Amino acid sequence: MRRRSSPSPPGDFTAPGRRRGGGVRLLGAVEEAAAAYGMSTMRLDTRHDLVEARALYARQGYREVPAYSVDPYAEHWFEKRLGGLDGGAGQGVIRRRT
Predict the structure, then answer these.
(1) How many helices (H) and strands (E) does the chain have?
(2) Contact at 8 Å (CB) between 43 and 68?
(3) Which of 16, 20, 56, 72 has a CA positioned 20 to 30 A from the CA of residue 26?
């Protein structure tokens, strides 16, 4: 990782491979693991200023939902039904914070 060249909060870093599909692959892997554990729904939250994260979630089929947690860094909440599960199994939820 390297420090951003543009002004940003102290300790704010970005990976050199940014915008090369890593986020899509990582999110897909997490969804697959959640489904393998029997989870039917994936929830995540993020800050308002993380526009790229919010766009990624929307592109991957997440819909914005009402707040389901209280966290000073959570300003947007998302949810996605995971495919390949029967309707009654896996009512658990995995929550991932960005």
Answers:
(1) 2, 6
(2) yes
(3) 72
Distance between CA atoms of 93 and 30, rounded to whole angstroms? Answer: 12
Question: Do residues 65 and 94 make contact, with C-beta atoms less than 8 angstroms apart?
Answer: no
Q: What's the CA dihedral at 58, 63, 69, 72 to 10 degrees?
A: 30
Question: Rounded to whole angstroms, how far apart are CA atoms 44 and 20?
Answer: 22
51-81 residue pLDDT tens: 999 999 999 999 999 999 999 999 999 999 9
Phi, psi of 5, rounded to the nearest 5 degrees: -85, -25
| pTM (predicted TM-score) | 0.67
Distance between first and last Cα of the chain: 16
